[in-house]
Design brief:
Layout lengths: L1 E5 L4 H12 L6 E6 L7 E4 L2 E7 L2 H4 L4 E4 L3 H12 L5 E4 L15 H4 L8 E3 L3 H17 L1 E10 L5 H16 L31 H13 L6 E8 L5 E10 L5 H9 L4 E3 L11 H4 L5 E9 L3 E12 L2 H14 L4
Parallel strand pairs: 1-2, 1-5, 2-4, 5-6, 6-7, 8-9, 11-12
Antiparallel strand pairs: 3-4, 8-10, 10-13, 12-13
The chain binds 3-amino-D-alanine.
C-alpha cells in the first residue's frame, strides 16, 4: 500500500521511515512530502532513495496512510481535508487535535480500542507517551490516584534543530566560547532549563499541562491528579522521568516489578546492586521504555511508589507510537 510521510526531513520523519521498516509495515510505495524548499531532494530511506515531493492535499490523499510530522498550525490547516472520506488514515504527531474530543489520542498498548473508525488519530506528547507505558499497567492493577512527574527531557524534543543546537553548543562551550541559544530559552550545554514550551496562567508550562491533560484522556481517567515539572537537559534523544505515584490499593515494589516485566513495550531495568537502572544512553534507539529504581514511596507508604523511566523521545515518544497506531488499524 502507499504510505505518505509529511515532514519527511525532520527528526521524527526520519524515524518514521526507520520504524516502518523495522516493524515490517506493509509499505508498497513510500512517498515523502516536505516544503517546496526540500522538494526534489533525494532522501536515503530503508526503502531506498526517495525523491521528496512538495506537499499538496491531493497528492497525500492518494495514500492509504499519512503520517504528519509537522507543526500544529500545519496540521490544523490540512489534517481534516487529508482525512476526509476517500483519503488516508491520518496520524498526526502535533498537539493540534490531541484534546479534541472527536479525535482519539492513542498509545496503542493502552487504548487502541479508542481508534474505532476514526480517520484522524492524534499521537501524544512524548513525555506523556513514555510515562504512560509504565503507568498504565500500574493504573489497571492498583488504581492510580496521584502522579507526580519530574522530567529530564532531551534536546530531540525540539527537533533536529534542538539536537544541532546542543551539539554545536557543546563544541563551542568546550572551546571556552559562549553558545547563543536560538531553539532553547537559554544555553543548554552544562545547564538544565526548567522551561519547555510556553508558560500558562496557572504557572505550569504547556508541556507540563500536556502531561496532565493527555494522560487523563488516554487513560480515560478525567479526575486523575497529575502534576509535572518539565525540564530540558543536555542529552540528545531519550527523555527520562522521575515519577511518584499514589494508588487506591496497596502496592509493593516487587509486585510492580513483576507486573511491569510482562507489560508490552516495557523493559524493567532495576538491579541497583549491578548499577543497572534506566538511563538515556541505554534507552536511545530502543523501542521499549526502560523502568527501574522502583521503590516504596516514603511519602505514600504502602499506597505509593517512586520509579524512574527512560524512553527514546523520537521512537516511543513519536515515530514508534505513530506506526503502532497505524498497525492497529490494518485490516486483520
Ligand atoms: C519536547 N515534548 O520535549 C516536547 C516535544 N514534543 O520539547
Amino acid at each position: 500500500m502507499e504510505v505518505a510521510l509529511v515532514g519527511a526531513t525532520g527528526a521524527v520523519g526520519v524515524e518514521v521511515c526507520n520504524v516502518l521498516k523495522a516493524r515490517s509495515f506493509p509499505v508498497g510505495r513510500l512517498r515523502l512530502f516536505a516544503s517546496e524548499r526540500s522538494a526534489g531532494k533525494a532522501l536515503s530511506t530503508p526503502f531506498g532513495d526517495v525523491s521528496v515531493e512538495a506537499f499538496s492535499v491531493e497528492a497525500v490523499r492518494e495514500s492509504t496512510y499519512a503520517f504528519l510530522a509537522v507543526s500544529g498550525a500545519f496540521a490544523l490547516e490540512h489534517a481534516a481535508a487529508l482525512a476526509a472520506p476517500g483519503g488516508p488514515i491520518v496520524i498526526d504527531n502535533s498537539s493540534a487535535f490531541r484534546m479534541d474530543p472527536s479525535v482519539p489520542l492513542v498509545v496503542p498498548e493502552v487504548n487502541a480500542h479508542a481508534i474505532g473508525s476514526a480517520r484522524l488519530v492524534a499521537n501524544p506528547n512524548c513525555t506523556t507517551a513514555i510515562a504512560a507505558m509504565a503507568l498504565y499497567p500500574l493504573h489497571v492493577a492498583f488504581g492510580l490516584t496521584k502522579v507526580i512527574v519530574s522530567s529530564y527531557q532531551a534536546a530531540s524534543g525540539a527537533g533536529a534543530e534542538g539536537m544541532e543546537e546542543l551539539r554545536s553548543g557543546l563544541a563551542l562551550s568546550l572551546r571556552g566560547e559562549e553558545p547563543t541559544p536560538k531553539v532553547f530559552a537559554h544555553a543548554l550545554p552544562f545547564n538544565v532549563i526548567p522551561h519547555i514550551d510556553a508558560f500558562t496562567e496557572n504557572g505550569y508550562t504547556k508541556e507540563e499541562m500536556k502531561v496532565t491533560n493527555e494522560t487523563r484522556k488516554i487513560f480515560a481517567a478525567p479526575d486523575l491528579a497529575v502534576s509535572c515539572t518539565a525540564v530540558r537537559i543536555p542529552t540528545l534523544r531519550a527523555h527520562s522521568e522521575a515519577i511518584t505515584i499514589q494508588t487506591a490499593r496497596p502496592i509493593t515494589a516487587d509486585g510492580a516489578r513483576e507486573l511491569l516485566r510482562s507489560a508490552p513495550g516495557v523493559r524493567v531495568v532495576d538491579e541497583p546492586a549491578r548499577n543497572a537502572y534506566p538511563m538515556p544512553l541505554t534507552a536511545t534507539g530502543e523501542h521499549d521504555v526502560e523502568v527501574g529504581r522502583i521503590r516504596q514511596s516514603l511519602v505514600f507508604g504502602e499506597y505509593g511508589l517512586d520509579l524512574f523511566v527512560c524512553g527514546d523521545q523520537l521512537l516511543r515518544g513519536a515515530a514508534l507510537n505513530a506506526v503502532l497506531i497505524a498497525e492497529a488499524t490494518l485490516p486483520k
